[in-house]
Every structure is written in structure tokens, then in C-alpha cells.
Design brief:
The structure is a homodimer.
Chain A (H helix, E strand, L loop, with lengths): L10 E2 L9 E3 L23 H5 L4 H8 L5 E3 L2 H10 L4 E3 L1 H7 L4 E6 L10 H13 L4 E6 L3 H13 L2 E7 H6 L1 H9 L3 E5 L5 H9 L7 H13 L4 E3 L6 H20 L6 E5 L4 H15 L6 E7 L4 H4 L1 E6 L8 E6 L21 H8 L4 E5 L1 H15 L5 H20 L4 E6 L7 H8 L10 H8 L11
Parallel strand pairs in A: 5-15, 6-7, 6-9, 7-8, 10-11, 10-15, 11-14
Antiparallel strand pairs in A: 1-4, 2-3, 4-5, 12-13
Helix pairs in contact in A: 3-5, 5-6, 6-8, 9-10, 11-12, 15-16
């Protein structure tokens, strides 16, 4: 059915020896660096010491280092990667044929592991450094559940204790996600809980609450800071996470270079930015160094449009306001996104690094509505044989749009997108789409203003 | 952490050009052939014409041909395989280290596709031949749901209508499986239903019934035979299915030959026999031709022990007794297995080909209890990073047993097992294991006798 099959295989798998030996830190090549995290009490940059009370020491070093371009990947992490990496770079021959486009479409598929997403790339690194520091365990929060699952797997492998605060509504509605974590030995607590002071306080004030990510973060941080030998870990937004996720882009670039492929457009979904940042890092590095040019597109839900409609300002990373201030595109830490099915994209802010790249005009952003995203997801599933996660399907939607534009113009562009994960635990969402009961929601300017009103005001942070 | 990593990678992926171009038919190398299917009315072998009323013509030809060793795989099927194959042959370095065994353990992992199992290998072949024959669609039954999902994916790819009768209790208890099939455009009907005569009859007799595989088969066969342009397809037991599944063994053998690996023991779980038959076929061929020797072990649940405790006789393939008689190891078509969580292994009989090989002493069989299977599954998940299906975990259990024997004896055996699928849709079972509420059940001799009493009696079929 296809023409060039002999030249480029359906799936490019690197050899183990071709897998990256170092993480790439895109901040090193940025002339204007992302703004530092601030201590909300002093408005001064957070120090190694301050951050080390919450996070592992080596991870804090990675977080604060914006000049070192490459960090060696320890052998134990590389061995773990070999269990599920290299991930395939897939040529979407079937999709191209179906769309009748002259464009060449590729996707890097990160879903072929039990956590179901790219989150495992950073989970094992964070668990490794916690173990190196001699810690007993780590705490975290999880909403949709991918991050909690990934961290559970990494901790089981290394023999670390793993304590996950899972937003209560997800804990109850996604019992299977919870069971995967339990199978990997994690202690999963529905949040808010009676095991933390902040949880007790919230339950006293709102007895029937089903929880929120902000509350779960606060509980996980309290748990880590009040128990000897524990630290808190986070699956997105932070610079360290983008650093670890650079393995996605590094593998992609090696595979493409091997076959002489150069992408014109690189597309990824963006919630906190971990997948998009990881995918584009080495390509963005080339662009920053003036060695090559690429078009980068971040895709976000129209219901939670931090890049396309947010403000670029210092804001809290969590709704509980216990974390440092980060400069980022934000909808305000009090913004409550509608119940969009792409749980991984329901975050009010965006990675500081990606925010700065976007602000410098080095990256574009688009927002899409969820029913059209699921239409693209279903089409993709039937044609390419992979049931995609709702989050990933945002990138699919824009990749298809771009390929159809090529059909109109006749351009033979090479399109690359990140397929971050599978939708096996999102079938409630697919059911709602299959039944025709899925709806769209776009916040009004007034809705957004309420969120913006909560952004802290101080000299230099006017919005 | 490991020694020989440089020699053998964690995962061996073949190149697309190394994927099999032909299916291998192990019956061609058997001196004593499997017994033919019999027409229950005449007790004469079923003819091409008789079988073609129910099955696609080319598939009937494959079913009846026990002399042709190789069948070309059509290009369109090979292109589809490239979307999710070659599947990795994994060296279980982490498991070996954990067990401290001198044994070398390999597994062929068939779960990295959206259907979650090896079933897709035969689904695409059967759908392809249906399409070639100019049919509108196919009908089938599904219990646990892997086969129905695989067939839905294959039909969506080829534009065929797909009508799945899903055992009512599974339809209600596994809504997510159902939604995957619907996302792939399949028409999924809970069985028994009011859309067939046999369904109406059963519902009139047993108004509250939650259905059975036997009933769903009867409905699917009636649907196919009463609608122009439809045929019935089946995901296991039949010779044609083992033929298609030979791609598992052929890829494994190519990968092993490439690295100079020769397995001593080959282990697979056995329900109807599709995975085990596919995995062992090319190795068994060598054994039959006297070119090499291997130990083969079929693993079945102690709750449904067709090989280890069944009778070798002609029996009905379905509880509704609408299908031809097959000679096989059987517990009787009326045997009702306990509610074991490995739905794919709850079948009263066994592939005729495997039954004959077992009867000739060319293959061994073992039965294991489900709590020890889940213990092995959880251990494997934590060590190797893959959450296995309950069915596949039967093979894991025996592979671990064999590796531990090597630890005692000091033998450096090479153990190969088939990891047929993932457990993402089996988390109710894991939940029961995690909660400590899982139980075991072994049928008594009296239980088995009731099943044996239903085996048809005729001259030459005494049990």
C-alpha cells in the first residue's frame, strides 16, 4: 500500500548503544534565561538550601543550573530505561495515506510502558537521586494518575517507599489506576485526608469536598517535610523534569539524523510542559545556537489556555500557595479548569522554560476544543492502531490540521509530534464521546479575570 | 548492574525486513496428524463446502490443509503487522538478578498493542481473508474481551463491519473493554440477546442469565449464517489460528538465531492454545524433523485443567453444540470452570494440534493455582516493569519455578516463555489479590466426572 517503505521503516528503534548517555539542558543555550523561582516571603530567588528542605539535593542542583548543557545519566537509570526504551519513532504511513497528504508525519510514541506515558522518564531519575541521598522514600500527588503510577514503578524497582496523595474524585472514579499503584506497592491516600494537618483543615472547612490537585500537593509537601527521610517529588513544570524528559527529544533526533530526516514542524501537547519540553529541547537548542530552524507548536485545551490567553507573571505553582513563586504563563493559581477529560492538561500554569521560549517568540501555541480532539483521537486509533491518551490527542489534532494544510498547498512538510501516552485508563472519556454526550467549554474573559485577580502583586509583577 | 549486557540487549527488535514472510504450519511436519473435525450428524470429516457456510473460504482451506508447511503472508497483512510488530524478545536481566539464578530467561512480549495481546495476529489475517472474499463483515463472540478488541481493530483498518457478542456479565463488568471496541466502530451486543433466535430461546428459558461463552458462540454463528455477506470468526482453538500465530515463534526463532541463543525450555500458558501453539510451532517443527530438541511446557489453571486432567476424545467445541466435533483434550463441553480471573484460559478443551502433540509425549503440561500465579505476576511487574495479564502470568509462574530449579542444580538453562499480554483491563483481579480476598478452586474428581459424562459416545470415542 505504500511507496517508500524500503527507505524508512514504520517504526525506527534505536540500538541500546545509541540511547542518550546524557540529559540535555536547553536553558544552557538560552541567552535570556528563565526567571528564577522566588521565595514568596522574601521575593528573593530560592536558594539550594531552601529548596533542599523539600526536594532532593541533586535535583535542586539540576533545578538551579541554567548553564551546564549536559548532565550524565547514571548507569542505573540507563539500565532502567533499557526495560522500556528506546521508544519507537513511528512513520504514520497509514495516516498519511488516509489524509491523502503530501506531508510526512512522524510521532514519537511514549506509551509502551505500564505507566502508559512519558512520566516514567523523570520518575526513575527522581527516585534514583532520592535513593542516592539515602532517603527512605518520596511523596507526591497525582490527579489523572499517570505520574503516580510512574513513580510507584520507579520506587518498586529501587526499593523506595512511595506515598501518593490522589485527588479524591480520581481515587474514586479511577479505581484501576489506584490498583496499578497498589500492585507496585505504593501507599495511595485519597486527598484531602485526615493524615495531614492541611488535609484535616480542608476537611473541616469543606466536609464534602472531592479534593483538588492544589490540595493534594499541599498534603504531599507536608508529609515529606514532617517525616524524617522523605522528600517531595513533582512530575512536571520544573526545570529538572524537562531535563530528564530531554531523552524523548534526544532519541528522536538521533533516529531522524540516522535516516536523514529533518522535521519542519514539531508539535506537542502542553499541560505543565514536561513532554513538550522534553521533545523539543535538542531541536530548540539548534535553533537557539542558530544551527537550524524549526516551527514549534504547543497545543493546549481551549478550556485551560495558559499560553494562548494567560498572563506572563510570577505566580504560585499550587492552589494551596505552599510552593515557591514561578514566572510563567498562568491563568492564576485559583483558576479552576472545567472538567475536561485531559486531566494531564488541567494546570493553571506552564513550565518557566517553555514560558520564556514562548515569550521570546521561539515557539507558537494553539488551543483546541475537546470534542474535536476526541474526533481526531478516534480517527487516529482506527488508522494507526493505537488508542491515544486524551492529552496526546491534542497534538494529534494539530498534526492532522497541519497535514491537511499541506494537502491544500501541496507542500511536502515533515511533521513530528509527541504521542505521550495511551488512553487505556481514559475510557470514561471515550464512552462520553461514543455516546455523543461530550461537551466543550471555553472560559469567558470574565472567568479568566477571576483567576488573574489572584496573581500576587508586587513591584515588577504587574500584569 | 549486569554482566553480559554488551552481548545481548535487553530487548531484541528485528528489522522489518527480518519479519516472517510466511506462516508456518506445524501439522505439515507431524507424522501422525491431528484428527479431523467431524460433522456431528454424520460423524464424517467436515468438508470444505460444509465449513464454508460458517467460515471464510480461504480460512477453511488453511484449516483443512495439514501438508503445506508454509503459507505466504499477504502484503496487506504484513503492512498491518508493521504497525505493532516485530514484538520485542526481552532478556529478563532484572528477573534473573532478583532470583539469583544461573538460568537465562527470555520472554516474547505480545502486549504492546492496543488490543493488549497476541490476538491481533490472527484477527487481521481473518479479517483480511473475509474482505478478500468480498464479505460485508464478520461476527464473533468475546468473553474477557481481548479477541473482540483485536477483531474490532482489524475490521476498522479494513473497513469491515464487526459484530461482537460479548458475554453479558463481561459486558457489564468490563465496560472499558466494550468502549475500546465501540471506539473501533464495532457493534457490541450483550449475550444472550433478543437479536437472535437462540438468544431469545435462552432468555425465555433462563430470564436472569448473565450469559456464557457457549451461548455467545451460538448467537455469533446464527448471526453469520442468517445474514448475507457475513461469516463467523474465532480467536483460538482452530488450526488456522495456530497458523497465523506462528509469527510469534518465527520472530522469536529469528531473533534467537541472530544472537546464537538456543532455548532449552519453552513455556506458554494454554487456554484454547493459540499463543502456545504460535510460540512453539517452529521449534516443534525442528523437534519433529529431528533437527533439535526442546522441552515444551503448557501451563493451565488448576481450575480448568484440560490437558492435565482431561480426556482425549471427540467433543463439542461449544456448550451450545452447534459447532463441529473436534478431537482434543477436554473436560466436556458442559464443564463450567470456576470464576478464575484468567478469562482467556477458561475453556473446556484444547487445540487439536496441541492435544495431539501432547498425546504423543512431545509436550508437557502443568497446572497452577491462581493465587500463586498472581504472586508471580506482582513480582514480575515490580521487577520487569510490565503489568502482565492473568493468563500470561501462568507462564511467568512456571518460568520462575524453572529458574529457581536451576539455582538449586546450578544448571545454566535458557528459558523462553510467552508473555501474551498486559493486565490493564484485569485490575478487578489485581484488586482482589491486593486485598487478600482472592481464592483458589480445584475441581474434585466428581466435578470433572459430570463434565466427562457430557462427552458424546460413539464407536471409537470411548473415554
Amino acid at each position: 500500500m505504500n511507496k517508500e517503505i524500503n527507505k524508512i521503516p514504520y517504526k525506527i528503534y534505536l540500538e541500546e548503544s545509541e540511547m542518550p548517555a546524557q540529559y540535555y539542558n536547553v536553558r544552557a543555550d538560552m541567552k535570556k534565561k528563565p526567571a528564577p523561582l522566588l521565595n514568596p516571603a522574601t521575593l528573593q530567588p530560592m536558594t539550594q538550601e531552601e529548596l533542599s528542605a523539600v526536594f532532593c539535593e541533586e535535583l535542586v542542583r539540576q533545578e538551579l543550573d541554567d548553564t551546564t548543557a549536559y548532565f550524565d545519566i547514571p548507569q542505573e537509570i540507563r539500565d532502567f530505561y533499557k526495560m522500556y526504551r528506546p521508544s519507537p519513532l513511528v512513520r504514520a504511513y497509514c495516516l498519511e495515506e488516509k489524509l491523502q497528504t503530501p506531508a510526512k508525519i512522524y510521532y514519537k510514541f511514549e506509551g509502551n510502558n505500564t505507566s502508559g506515558s512519558h512520566k516514567l522518564n523523570s520518575a526513575i531519575a527522581q527516585a534514583y537521586y532520592a535513593k542516592q541521598q539515602g532517603l527512605k522514600g518520596v511523596t507526591t500527588e497525582t490527579g489523572a494518575g499517570q505520574w503516580g503510577t510512574a513513580l510507584s514503578m520507579a520506587c518498586a524497582y529501587l526499593g523506595l517507599d512511595c506515598r501518593v496523595y490522589m485527588v479524591k474524585v480520581s481515587y474514586e472514579q479511577k479505581p484501576f489506576r489506584r490498583e496499578v499503584m497498589r500492585t507496585y506497592g505504593a501507599n495511595v491516600t485519597p486527598s484531602p485526608s485526615m493524615t495531614t494537618e492541611v488535609g484535616k483543615k480542608i476537611l473541616a472547612e469543606h466536609p464534602g469536598t472531592t479534593g483538588s490537585l492544589g490540595c493534594a500537593i499541599s498534603e504531599a509537601v507536608e508529609d515529606a517535610t514532617t517525616h524524617e527521610g522523605y522528600r517531595y517529588v513533582l512530575g512536571s513544570v520544573l526545570n529538572q523534569v524537562l531535563l530528564h524528559q530531554s531523552v524523548i527529544g534526544l532519541e528522536t533526533k538521533t533516529a531522524m539524523d540516522k535516516y536523514g530526516i529533518k522535521p519542519d514542524v514539531i508539535i506537542g501537547c502542553a499541560g505543565g510542559g514536561s513532554n513538550l519540553g522534553g521533545l523539543i529541547s535538542p531541536f530548540m537548542g539548534e535553533k537557539l545556537r542558530g544551527e537550524a530552524d524549526y516551527q514549534f507548536i504547543a497545543v493546549e485545551p481551549a478550556s485551560c489556555p495558559s499560553l494562548t490567553r494567560g498572563k506572563y507573571a510570577y505566580d504560585f505553582c499550587d492552589t494551596g500557595m505552599v510552593c515557591p513563586l514561578a514566572k510563567m504563563y498562568t491563568l492564576g493559581s485559583g483558576f479552576i479548569p472545567s472538567a475536561n477529560h485531559a486531566g494531564g492538561l488541567r494546570y493553571h500554569g506552564m513550565s518557566s522554560t517553555l514560558s520564556e521560549l514562548y515569550d521570546q517568540g521561539l515557539m507558537e501555541a494553539r488551543s483546541v476544543e475537546q470534542t474535536e480532539v476526541f474526533k481526531a483521537a478516534e480517527e487516529f486509533a482506527r488508522i494507526e492502531g493505537i488508542l491515544p491518551a486524551p492529552e496526546s490527542s491534542h497534538a494529534i489534532k494539530v498534526a492532522i490540521d497541519e497535514a491537511l494544510k499541506c494537502k491544500e498547498t501541496g507542500e511536502e512538510k515533515t511533521i513530528l509530534f509527541g504521542l505521550t501516552g495511551t488512553g487505556y485508563f481514559d475510557l470514561k472519556a471515550y464512552e462520553s464521546f461514543n455516546n455523543g454526550t461530550m461537551t466543550d467549554y471555553i472560559p469567558t474573559d470574565e472567568d479568566l479575570q477571576k483567576g488573574f485577580d489572584g496573581i500576587p502583586q508586587f513591584p515588577g509583577n504587574e500584569i
